[in-house]
Amino acid sequence: MKVMIVLLVPLLVPFVSAQTFRWGPCPTPMVQPNFDLNQYLGKWYEIEKLPASFEKGKCIEANYKIKPDKTIQVLNVQTYEGKVGTAEGTAVVKDIREPAKLGVRFSYFTPYAPYWVLSTDYNSVALVYSCTDVLRLFHVDFAWILSRTRTLPAKTLSQAKEIFSQANIDVSKMFPTDQQGCDVPV
User: Fold this and answer.
1) Which of 18, 130, 163, 164 is geometrically suited to a Cys-Cys bond with 171, CB 3.0 to 4.6 A?
2) pTM given for the model
3) pLDDT given for residue 18 in this prediction
């Protein structure tokens, strides 16, 4: 087992440099009770996040809408080095008994990754968590604080981080997304 860990660590260093990884399996936090997907749809702005290699820009937003096949279109937009980039994916409700536990993917060649809505009031703030176990030795996790506006009051951010912490999710490396100057054409 030690040999396997020694061999894996050098291979994983580039992967985890822009991610947050922790030893042990993923936590299993509670999700939003009675989650209503229709109220959640629409535009959300990223306010803070754990490091994610696929999100290096500013003015990051996510747009969700139901597609004709009843899956959810996910359209992420960000500005990076002066250029607006998009990533389109698909989300699905994995189990109708737990509608706040979605799966999302951005390529047909990848499995669905967890996208769990831990808490939302639908009108101003949402807390989202994703975690993937790697051989149950460690996990890579992502967490986002989203808002319907480009800013949130400090008190709301503090309360959001407390909810993550109570769910055993370490958000000490969470940092703000630059949402300044986003409504001006690039």
Assistant:
1) 164
2) 0.86
3) 47
